[in-house]
């Protein structure tokens, strides 16, 4: 694809992510723990690696996004490492309790406090960094969700990025204005998002 060629030419780094996402599935690991889904997941990962492996802009392979963690992700991690040991593999669903990622990459981790989600608690950055024997780098795969005027808290995040050598930054999600202009009853424009159009 042209995008990768442009990244090669202009020196942009790429985290090349497989098109695997089961966002909102309950349980989240339903497909990655089901061997019937390994061929479909494997096809997406192998095609990505075979298509893009000669692009110097690709510095990290990603096993997808928000798809739980299970045997299929473990198998795909091992396959990538066997064909391309030169690049790290990351997967945000991997977390610290798995070998399916070379980079710990939590989503929306706060700096100081854990978040008590019922299914999967979200640990704070400080907790991730304090795990005994853990040496992998930590990069926030998503933080500071950019919707409307929601982009707050950067000072605290950037203080942590500077303070902890293993914490190597993060990716603001999602670097694009997700809104569409809608008008109120007086004709004034406002930024509308999913759910603001009668959708559910």
Rough outline = globular
Q: Spatial order of the strands in the main sheet? A: 1-2-3
Kindly state the number of beta strands: 7
Counting H and I runs of at least 4 residues, what is the number of helices?
Answer: 5
Main pleated sheet: 3 strands, parallel
Strand content: 15-25%
Descriptive overview:
The protein is α/β, with parallel strands linked by helices. It has one domain (2-192): Glycosidases (TIM Barrel, Alpha-Beta Barrel), CATH 3.20.20. The chain is built from 5 helices and 7 strands; from the N terminus they run αβαβαβαβαβββ. The chain has a 3-stranded parallel sheet with strand order 1-2-3. Strands 4-5 form a two-stranded parallel ribbon. Strands 6-7 form a two-stranded antiparallel sheet. β4, α5 and β5 (167-172) form a beta-alpha-beta unit. α2 packs parallel to α3. The radius of gyration is 19 Å and the shape is globular. The relative contact order is 0.11. The mean pLDDT is 91.
Secondary structure topology:
Elements: H1 2-10, E1 14-17, H2 38-52, E2 58-62, H3 71-83, E3 89-90, H4 125-129, E4 138-143, H5 154-163, E5 167-172, E6 180-183, E7 189-192
Parallel strand pairs: 1-2, 2-3, 4-5
Antiparallel strand pairs: 6-7
Helix pairs in contact: 2-3
Entry summary:
The protein is an alpha/beta fold.
What would the keywords be for this entry?
200 residues, alpha/beta, TIM Barrel, two-stranded parallel sheet, 5 helices
